[in-house]
Design brief:
The chain has 59 residues and is mostly beta strands. The protein contains no helices and four strands.
Length: 59
């Protein structure tokens, strides 16, 4: 995987602060953006997005 963050749809400079890794995917998100991008860990291709606005809500 040698993709640039802009190629994955993450465009805000210095704002990609969240990352998670599973067996098959790498999940990235930008601060102040409710859309996390998940990428195939083997190919580097964007596999989809997840709305994390409700998942990360602090009570």
């Amino acid at each position: 995987m040698g993709e640039k963050l802009t190629d994955l749809g993450l465009t805000a400079a210095n704002m990609t602060t969240g990352i998670a890794v599973t067996d098959d995917y790498v999940v990235l998100n930008e601060r102040a953006n409710n859309k996390a991008v998940y990428v195939n860990a083997k190919t580097g291709e964007v596999a989809g997005t997840i709305d994390i606005s409700e998942v990360c809500k602090v009570v």
